[in-house]
Amino acid sequence: MARIRTTVDGLVYEDDVEPRMLLVQYLRERLGKTGTVIGCDTSNCGACTVHLDGLSVKSCSVLAVQANGSEVLTVEGLERDGQLHPVQQAFHDNHALQCGYCTPGMIMQSIDLLGDNPDPTEQEVREGIEGNLCRCTGYQNIVRAVQDAAQKMKPGATASQPASVAGGGA
Amino acid sequence: MTTMDARSMGTSVRRIEGPDKVTGTATYAGDSVADGTLVLHPVQAGVARGEITAIDTAAAQALPGVVAVLTHRDAPTLGDTGDPEHRVLQGTTIHHRGQYVAAVLAEHAEVAAEAARLVVVTVDENPSTTGFDPDAQAYTPSALANGQPPDSGVGDPDAALAAAPVVVRASYATPMEHHNPMEPHTTTATWVDGRIEVFEATQGVESSRQTLATLFDAEVVVHASHVGGGFGSKGLHAGTVLAVLAARTVPGRPVRFALGRRQMFETVGYRPATVQHMALGASRDGRLEVVTHDVVGATARYKEFVEPAGGSTRSMYAAPHRRTSHRAVPLDLDGPTYMRGPGEAPGSFGLECAMDELAVALDLDPIDLRVRNEPEVHPENGLPFSSRGLVECLHAGAERFGWSSWDRTPRRRLVDGWWHGVGVGCGTFPTLRFPGSAAEITFTGGRYVVAIGAADIGQGARTVLTQIAADALGVDVGSITVEIGSTQVPVGSIAGGSAGTASWGSTVVEAADRFRDKYGENPDDGDHADAATPDNPWAGEYAMAAYCAQFAEVAVHADTGEIRVPRLLGMFGVGRILNPTLGRSQLQGGMVWGLSMALHEESVVDPRFGEVINHDFAGYHVASNADVRVVEAEWIDEDDPYINPMGAKGIGEIGIVGVSAAIANAAYHATGVRVRSLPITCDDFLTSGLL
Fold this sequence. Notes:
The complex is a heterodimer of chains A (170) and B (691). Chain A is built from five helices and five strands; from the N terminus they run E-E-H-E-E-E-H-H-H-H. Chain A has 170 residues and is α+β, with helices and mostly antiparallel strands. Chain A has two domains: 2-77, Beta-grasp domain (Ubiquitin-like (UB roll)); 86-153, DNA polymerase, domain 1 (Orthogonal Bundle). In chain A, strands 2-1-5-3-4 form a five-stranded mixed beta sheet, with helices on one face. In chain A, helix 2 (86-93) crosses helix 5 (140-153). Chain A is globular, with a radius of gyration of 16 Å. The two termini of chain A are 27 Å apart. With 691 residues, chain B is α+β, with helices and mostly antiparallel strands. Chain B has three domains: 18-27 and 435-532, 2-Layer Sandwich (Aldehyde Oxidoreductase, domain 4), CATH 3.30.365.10; 32-127 and 181-260, Aldehyde Oxidoreductase, domain 3 (Alpha-Beta Complex), CATH 3.90.1170; 152-176 and 271-431 and 541-686, Aldehyde Oxidoreductase, domain 4 (2-Layer Sandwich). Helix content of chain B is 23%, strand content 25%. Chain B has helices spanning 18-22, 58-62, 109-118, 157-163, 205-216, 238-249, 344-362, 366-372, 390-401, 461-473, 500-519, 580-599, 659-671, 682-686; strands at 38-44, 50-56, 66-71, 93-94, 100-106, 120-125, 152-154, 166-174, 186-192, 195-200, 219-223, 255-258, 274-282, 288-300, 321-331, 413-415, 418-430, 438-444, 447-451, 480-483, 528-532, 545-557, 563-573, 605-606, 611-612, 630-635. In chain B, a hairpin with a 2-residue loop joins strand 16 and strand 17. The longest helix of chain B is centred in the last third of the chain and has 20 residues, at 500-519. At the A-B interface, helix 1, helix 2, helix 3, helix 4 and helix 5 of A face helix 1 and helix 12 of B.
């Protein structure tokens, strides 16, 4: 067993974990954060994407012990004062989901993309989140949602809420 | 007979559970993480055929954290559902590689996986056949997977082919494909006092309940609040049975079995490979004299499923002489099953590519060829069509796509090193209504609660049933609460066959009519009415189906043979679209399935071992965001009063149908290379000698 101390969605957790435990298992089984889901086990589908110290990672390919001393942000930690993050809002507004299983990871990766590139072209969105698979929507509304969120997050944009900085911990 | 008035239907009501899905609070079958939940990891057969002679579980049982190891030795005798796949741990015979032969229950996933590897299974291996050879000994099945007869015929097709002035004969191949919904199949089961409660990733809570009740002779409750896609794969498979068997050994404790992606290539079905021998004979002015579509398809030796790939050829085009046939080659693999556009998706590749080849042989525009062969009535059974939008879809789609601006001669447009071309492929899918649902409407607290055991697998059942109920009751959608996804509400038929909304919606409308008849416009609190799915009085009087025309622009790199699809347009004749935003998304998603089928998807079996070797997303490529460019889905106005009160044909399947043919035909137009086997890859062009 290894002792880890991790900040997840703004709260500090200390736990003994097996060194072989995956971060996604830790989030789901130990912390009950089932908003982050498992899709493929091989880091291809992106359904389990979270942020680790502000960078997106596929949490099925990170050990829980690697998150020791780090900040983890999941889809469950995005809301601020009861307001959806602009990317969450844009995914709902643009109907960028169907079954919803890829959605948490897709949102986390899109936030990471917008942190790197606040105003991506359509092709930049497609390539920037190509590591997140969706089997339902055909991706059209997802691309639209990311570009919509980019506009709403621009400084001075008249969003219904303050534009949140992409990435980052709590 | 008219369709019902629409106020909410036809408008883009926002997806009801959208906020839950963007916040990660929508719960799937694996999200129940109650304390004490045990994790199941299976032990799977490593050979395709054989007999188990011994299982040594000692090392696994000795591992700390292991609670139980199940084998056939201690499994109870299950009831008979008639489905061999459900006979889990019922004996020593191995029918396919990956079959469950034991299971470990442990307190943590890591321990369960480690212990499963410690179980030693000794097997007497028997010879097996797992590679699909279309020339192998095949048999005639008694029926296709959809219940239709394997063969059909009119006139004398062989004589007509011998006499026809223009004949195209070609064979087309489609591979084994796996559904790969994003949510792996998952069961969380608890057994308490002879009662089983299951949280299940399923396309039908009631069908799952019935199956489990038969197998275990117990009271069963099934919940499926949200389901992460299905596409035909989320019927009840062996994994669910294994999980409930395990739960039975630990009464009161929840047991969770979440399949890994690799297990989804071994235990939850697939679309079987086909080879389709097509022959079309026509007059010189492009009238079909004869169509034959002879299919050889793979099936499983232990569980028959015959892909009805020739089905749509029975209705697509007029021809006085015609034949379809289906033969099956049995393999020692797990059982095939329905996969999006079952029959029609692979079958339209054969028929619609052959039509394109005939158009070339006749020097006719492929749209004109199809229009000339539009039937007035169903060409096999003579029924009139309730509505048939194929020609309108072709014309409307061609105009929107800019079809006429392209020279029909192949290999004419080379832009920046890429050959560009366009192609069309058409399709149909039956409009069905499944019997057996029931809906209950209760007026409570000023709201109408509409309960029916439907499944929302991503298509948006909550949302469209709310719209249907609102219009049927004549109230705003804000007055409706829909309760679905459980066997604790009245029964619902499956989400499948493009029949979910039609079946549930017809039932809800019937219940709403009864409610209004009983209580009028001002009901009292607690008033309620219920109804079963009404029969369609027009069934058997009309042929009912959706239609589409799919247009593709393809670019093939002149040096590398890389193929891209810069543009897809699908034009659909699907009756009333109940919610344009949801409907367009579903149709676009289907079209991207078609793109993925055309260019990427192929499950490769190693015939020495019976294993799908590309059994994960690293090896089995489904279309990613970067593979997709412009995908447009549009529809014609179509008022069909004969199909159901909503006038809505199903849209889950039709989106994929015809797309792979449109892309293959466009690739021919771009390069002059005719590819008759899916998926289409660089090698097809590089080895053609034409690039």
